[in-house]
Write a structure and sequence with these properties.
This protein is of the alpha/beta class. 28% of the residues lie in helices and 24% in strands. The protein is built from 13 helices and 16 strands. Strands 3, 5, 6, 7, 8, 15 and 16 form a 7-stranded mixed sheet that branches. A 6-stranded parallel sheet has the order 11-10-9-12-13-14, with helices on both faces. Helix 6 links the parallel strand 9 and strand 10. The protein is globular.
């Protein structure tokens, strides 16, 4: 088969690799029909994720059709069309039983495109397939469902739920890329009073308005702290969601928060960020971090199927799977191309 293979920081290639095979009786093989590129893949290519080694097939998001199953599979069958989640769940370890499959110690967690071969390929082996795939409901559009592989659950769980967004809150989202936009979409489910999107790129701020942001701030030209303090009588945001993964954006999120507020970090950080405890220690601020657990995927699937969430609005570009190297160039240069999510179809 053909797959996108990582060969070290800055080096990847669309090349021939062996077809995946069933290794454990809970595995399934899925023929990939659509996949996408994640900001985390860019972090891998920068060298920020040292667990990813030379020869790894990249990618952790896909929809496709099951072609083979292990003897222990009971819920998935050959011929099923499924969503492949970015998180694999063994279902039996302490973390999976607590609903935190992202921290799985039974062989799952974020393994696709990380510690095992991933989804940017013609075929993918999915461990723990009964618990790590989701049937695609009748009437659900493929592009909507594909957004449930990672970014919508990530924005919702790690941003909205960890940040404890409540009705009437002022929510500041630092970063209006796909994850930040997903957090904006998810926050609408909790009726915040005001959602403020902060970014350096005007095209992404326009997308944020489409996704539900009430106010947009280009922090290359405007001071978001001044704007938010004016809006909140000097208090600051109730919730600040960091959705980029660089020191400056984390530190900005911590600056924007009110006493008693919540800072929810989503971004993948490859470098240390300064935590200004000299300012925060007395302010009753809660800071959360997290890797998505994907426990919200069934709920979000129902909302999409019922037409209550529009996930496909995040898709800006389409490519053939074989054109994935060009798709990476487009995605990586989003400031020039306006790319949010790209969809690659087989």
């Amino acid at each position: 088969m053909k797959a996108l293979v990582y060969h070290g920081p800055g080096d990847k290639a669309w090349e021939e690799t062996p077809d995946p095979v069933i290794l454990d009786d809970t595995d399934a093989i899925v023929r990939v029909e659509a996949t996408t590129i994640c900001g985390t893949d860019l972090h891998i290519l920068k060298g920020d994720v040292p667990a990813v080694t030379d020869g790894r097939v990249l990618g952790h998001e896909a929809i496709g059709t099951v072609t083979h199953i292990g003897d222990a599979c009971r819920r998935v069958a050959v011929g099923d069309r499924v969503l492949v989640s970015c998180i694999s769940s063994c279902g039996t370890c302490r973390y999976c039983r607590d609903g935190h499959a992202g921290q799985c110690i039974g062989g799952g967690g974020w393994i696709l495109g990380n510690t095992i071969d991933g989804t940017q390929a013609e075929l993918v082996r999915v461990p723990f397939a009964d618990l790590s795939t989701y049937p695609i409901p009748d009437g659900a559009a493929d592009e909507d469902v594909l957004m449930l592989a990672d970014i919508l659950p990530t924005g919702f769980e790690v941003g909205v739920l960890n940040g404890r967004v409540q009705p009437g809150d002022v929510v500041a989202v630092v970063g209006a890329g796909p994850i930040g936009l997903s957090a904006i979409i998810g926050s609408q489910l909790y009726s915040p009073a005001t959602v403020i999107a902060i970014d350096l790129t005007d095209s992404r701020l326009e997308a944020a308005k489409t996704c539900g942001a009430d106010i947009t701030v280009n922090n290359g030209r405007e001071d978001p702290l001044e704007i938010i303090r004016e809006l909140t009588d000097g208090l600051g945001a109730d919730v600040a969601i960091e959705a980029v993964g660089i020191p400056a954006t984390f530190e900005l999120a911590a600056t924007l928060i009110r006493p008693g507020g919540h800072v929810a970090n989503i971004g993948v950080h490859g470098k240390p960020a300064t935590l200004h405890l000299e300012d925060l220690w007395s302010r009753n601020v809660t800071i959360t971090t997290g890797l998505v657990d994907a426990y919200s995927t069934p709920t979000l699937m129902r909302l999409i199927t019922n037409g209550d969430l529009d996930a496909a609005q995040l898709v800006t570009h389409h490519f053939e799977l074989a054109d994935i190297e060009h798709a990476y160039d487009v995605f990586q240069n989003a400031a020039e191309t306006g790319a949010l999510k790209v969809v690659l179809t087989a």
